[in-house]
Design goal:
Blueprint lengths: L8 E5 L10 H11 L3 E6 L2 H13 L4 E5 L5 H15 L4 E4 L14 H29 L2 E6 L13 H20 L5 E8 L5 H7 L6 H11 L8 H12 L10 E4 L9
Parallel strand pairs: 1-2, 1-4, 2-3, 4-5, 5-6, 6-7
The structure holds nicotinamide-adenine-dinucleotide.
């Protein structure tokens, strides 16, 4: 590895995986560490965060695991305070948590709509309001928000709360990028396409006959003939978080195998 993140401290929110294998957050936390970052791996599930931390430490990296709910302000405050006590700085804020709940406005309950916005974009508001002042005091920082191509395209499945909240993630990212551009802080978003992760398989499972059907149909929908994987998101995140991307801010980067170029 090239140590692109040497001496950097990364706070990764949603750094676990809901099942065996690699989700976007877990792979990104590990990739950050492989490039030299010290990582605070945070997840709703402490065992999931600990699993990520154990992988990083087994590879010789530096990582601590913490439990937190990104929708709870006091949890974010606790995590940020811990990171500052542990490492004294936060160079990279990675907002990975996001979930798609099925249904359009007629099918979806108001509670699920509210929760979608709170989880997918409200969590960015909370993490940024705690981390931005620290980055401003440091005079540097990189924020990577995980959006979705569902923020800009209809992908064939109704999940209105997801589509609307991820669209909000995009403009949230660009507004932060502009407000903080002259303060050494960059903010970019990654728009994953169809990725083969445990969470994607679990959250969309009910719309397919079985897992094999899900994988076959999602593969077939991709221009490359195959879904991406969590490492595609992880390495794009490493680049955006690194100083190699020092002149890149406010970008909404699709990592989708070309899917957003496609009109069918
Ligand atoms: N997988 C895809 O196909 C795909 C496509 C487009 C966008 N995305 C985006 O990628 C991100 C997640 O990637 P993934 O699907 O691989 O999932 P993931 O495996 O990275 O899992 C996300 C983690 O977030 C944790 N989490 C859930 N709610 C939380 C909360 N309230 N507080 C703290 N942690 C919480 C879960 O426990 C899980 O470990 C999301 O933002 C998602 O919208 C994924």
């Amino acid at each position: 590895m090239t140590q692109r993140l040497k001496d950097k401290v990364a706070l990764v929110l949603g750094a676990g995986s809901i099942g065996p294998g690699w989700g976007n957050g877990k792979a990104t936390a590990v990739a950050y560490a492989r490039e030299g970052a010290r990582v605070l791996a945070v997840d709703l599930s402490l065992p999931a965060a600990e699993e990520t931390a154990a992988i990083i430490r087994a590879e010789g990296g530096v990582c601590e695991a913490m439990q937190a709910d990104v929708t709870v302000d006091a949890d974010i405050a606790r995590v940020v305070a811990h990171c500052m006590a542990w490492q004294g700085r936060i160079d990279i804020l990675h907002n990975n948590v996001g979930m798609a709940y099925l249904g359009g406005p007629v099918e979806m309950s108001e509670e699920t709509w509210d929760h979608s916005l709170k989880l997918n974009v409200g969590s960015l508001f909370l993490s940024c309001r705690h981390v931005l002042p620290l980055m401003e005091a440091q005079g540097s920082g990189a924020i990577v928000n995980v959006s979705s191509i569902a923020s800009i395209r209809w992908l064939g499945t109704a999940y209105i709360g997801y589509a609307a909240s991820k669209a909000a993630v995009n403009q949230f990212t660009q507004a932060i990028a502009m407000q903080y551009a002259d303060k050494g802080i960059r903010a970019n978003a990654i728009l994953p396409g169809m990725m083969n992760t445990p969470t994607a398989r679990a959250s969309l499972g009910s719309t397919f006959a079985d897992e094999a059907d899900l994988v076959a149909k999602r593969n077939a929908a991709c221009p490359t003939g195959a879904m991406g994987d969590a490492w595609d998101i992880a390495w794009a995140s490493v680049f955006l978080a690194s100083d190699q991307a020092k002149y890149i801010t406010g970008v909404l980067l699709p990592v989708d195998g070309g899917m957003t170029c496609k009109v069918v």
